[in-house]
Specification:
There is one protein chain. The chain is α+β, with helices and mostly antiparallel strands and 603 residues long. The chain folds into two domains: 253 residues, Periplasmic binding protein-like II (D-Maltodextrin-Binding Protein, domain 2); 253 residues, Dipeptide-binding Protein, domain 3 (Roll), CATH 3.10.105.10. The chain has 17 helices and 26 strands. A five-stranded antiparallel β-sheet has the order 1-6-7-9-8. The chain has a five-stranded mixed β-sheet with strand order 20-19-21-15-22. Helix 11 links the parallel strand 19 and strand 20. Helix 7 packs antiparallel against helix 10, helix 9 packs across helix 16 and helix 15 packs antiparallel against helix 16. One of its GO terms (molecular function) is peptide transmembrane transporter activity. It comes from Paraburkholderia saeva. One of its GO terms (cellular component) is outer membrane-bounded periplasmic space. One of its GO terms (biological process) is microcin transport.
């Protein structure tokens, strides 16, 4: 690769120069001549077929296109697509050349130019060109792709083909994150969806037309929307790149999709697949056991991780009039008894989530700093005065606290909001009962049912009727995309450096876009202003101030009844699997297994 000699700060006041890597703040960890990431084994043996189960709630698939809204994409498709640059898992915001062999950031920060590695080619043998990159970007930003892409790439004005191997992305404004966002655009061939007669399937209609990407794997076979196998591309172009050495060691990766959690767990015990990540504490202790675990044929291990927690909880849809009063939302939060759940169901393995950025320095604490106040003060007249104090603490039922005390406080809040108990139910001034539905899918219902049942029972003590509704995953996803739910369990994935994804989650425009990540339905000019400051932050300090301010507003808004988190990844695996001695810092356990583990050679 044409690596440059050194690293520049992202928007340094000096002539632009091509470099091998960029960092949002400071400099990348790895030097220009690095051979591989520290958390891989460059000598890992290759071969074998890794068999996995559903990595999420998906129980079937009906397309190979992960970029469109309609339908359910097959698991694992990410191994087929690459981007111009890729991050490392032991830094928070750096990117290294992948399809691109160098990157040039303009001195004014308003554009970034990438040169494409001449060796990069797609699975059909065609070279990756700037036209393909532009086609990918334009398609993803168009109405034919899922709307979150347009939101995520909104600050990129356009992609310009400079020459066949050079592409320039131009930005609306100076934003330190935008070069990394541009470098992360998934790239696919313009020929994807092309027919023998020269016609082309519309991008939003692509279903089982196999993707033409540049990644290390291609689809070998699939069966009835329930199983899919990827085979390592023997002509994969990037195996010797420093960012790829020691990765993707399995010859094949197969996913088997099971109908529910019980079937999936029993299949693992029967030896039908090789590894899985356990997200349910009770199952880890009580159900992930048996003769094969006792004999050592199956192994359980917890791996430390340093990810932020993200936010997981019961999302209260603000599009429903029932949840538009903050006093009502706070009352619902008071009805969740985490301490009881942790003792009785979780074996004391969890901590309560008390921030949208918990387990990081991005979590708000104490009183607002001067930087936070500079963002909040212009909106003081529109904000709850409590936002200018400490962040709210989650309800506690350990002595001297109690569920009874919390429910009494909740009842007082509901009374203030106009809800009183009469005629056998909690009713508003119109006499309408307080009733709502908690939606979930069949894949996670077994794990969530006892938790939700406890929450529903506590709500019942307030006169609130909550019903747990379970539907299959396809219908669940369809209802989520259309925001057709009262409440549901959602996890906003963790990010180490918040950026444009927060606009999709909390921005006013996204609230009205079908399929966006703004499940809450939040429309707030104050939040929009904070989000604008967040994505325009030029220093780490400015980013932290904006994130703290956002966290304060969201937590004081009680838009979510927060759940809990674990500081470890719980992984069960078959004997004979191995991983590098050095663990990454920030990672998804499922992706870590597929990208860096291997099978030990049999004696």
């Amino acid at each position: 690769m044409a690596f440059a000699a050194g690293v520049i700060a992202l928007f340094a006041a000096q002539p632009a120069q091509a470099v091998y890597a960029i960092a949002q703040y400071g400099e990348p960890k790895y030097p220009a001549d690095f051979k591989h990431f520290d958390y891989v084994n460059p000598s890992a043996p290759r071969g074998g077929t890794l068999v996995l189960a559903n990595p999420d709630r998906l129980t079937s698939f009906d397309k190979f296109n992960p970029f469109t809204l309609r339908g359910n994409a097959a698991p694992g498709l990410g191994v087929m697509f690459e981007s111009l640059m890729t991050g490392s898992s032991d830094e928070v915001a750096s990117a290294y050349g992948l399809l691109a062999d160098d990157v040039n950031i303009a001195p004014d920060g308003l554009s970034t130019t990438f040169h494409i590695n001449p060796r990069a080619h797609f699975s059909n043998g065609d070279p990756v060109t700037a036209d393909d990159v532009k086609y990918s970007f334009d398609t993803l930003k168009s109405p034919k792709a899922a709307p979150q892409f347009a939101a995520y790439f909104a600050e990129i004005t356009r992609a310009v083909v400079v020459d066949p191997k050079t592409i320039r992305f131009e930005f609306h404004q100076r934003n330190r994150e935008l070069p990394l966002i541009a470098g992360g655009v998934p790239v696919f061939s313009r020929k994807w969806g092309a027919k023998p007669d020269g016609s082309h399937v519309a991008f939003d209609q692509i279903a089982f037309e196999e993707p033409i990407g540049s990644g290390p794997y291609v689809i070998e076979r699939y069966d009835n929307g329930r199983n899919i196998t990827y085979r390592r591309d023997p002509n994969y172009w990037g195996a010797a790149l420093p960012v790829r050495v020691g990765t993707f060691n399995f010859e094949r990766i197969t996913y088997k999709l099971y109908s529910d959690e019980i079937a999936r767990r029993e299949a693992f015990k029967a030896g039908e697949y090789d590894a899985f990540v356990e997200y349910v504490a009770r199952s880890w202790v009580r159900r992930d056991v048996g003769k094969k675990f006792d004999s050592g044929e199956l192994i359980k291990r917890e791996f430390v991780q340093h990810n932020g927690t993200g936010m997981q909880g019961f999302i209260l849809n603000q599009r429903r009039p029932l949840f538009q009063d903050v006093r009502v939302r706070k009352a619902l939060d008071l009805a969740l008894d985490f301490q009881w759940l942790n003792r009785q169901l979780f074996y004391s393995q969890y901590k309560r989530i008390d921030s949208f950025f918990a387990n990081t320095d991005l979590q708000a604490s104490g009183l607002p700093s001067a930087g936070e106040l500079a963002l909040l003060n212009p909106w003081r007249a529109k904000l709850d005065p409590a936002i200018f104090g400490p962040p709210p603490k989650q309800p506690d039922t350990d002595p001297p606290g109690s569920l009874r005390a919390n429910l009494l406080q909740a009842r007082a809040l509901l009374t203030e909001a106009g809800w009183t108990y009469r005629d056998g139910a909690l009713r508003n001034a119109k006499g309408e009962p307080f009733e709502f539905e908690i939606l979930d899918d069949s894949g996670s219902a077994a794990a969530m049912e006892p938790i939700t049942a406890t929450f529903v029972r506590n709500l019942g003590k307030l006169g609130i009727v909550a019903r747990f509704r379970v539907v299959d995953f396809a219908l669940y996803q369809k209802r989520l995309d259309a925001f057709d739910f009262d409440a549901t369990t959602i996890r906003f994935p963790d990010v180490q450096v918040p950026g444009s994804e927060e606009i999709d989650r909390f921005g006013s425009k996204a609230a009205g876009e079908t399929g966006s990540g703004n499940y809450i339905g939040l429309k707030s000019p104050v939040v929009d202003s904070i989000l604008s400051s967040l994505i325009q932050a030029q220093t780490r300090e400015q980013l932290v101030d904006a994130t703290h301010a956002l966290d304060r507003i969201l937590m004081h808004g009680y838009y979510v009844v927060p759940h809990w988190y674990s500081a470890t990844h719980r992984v069960a695996y078959r004997r004979g699997m191995a991983w590098p001695k050095t663990l990454p810092l920030y990672y998804s356990a499922n992706d870590w297994i597929t990208s860096t583990w291997w099978f030990e050679p049999k004696p």
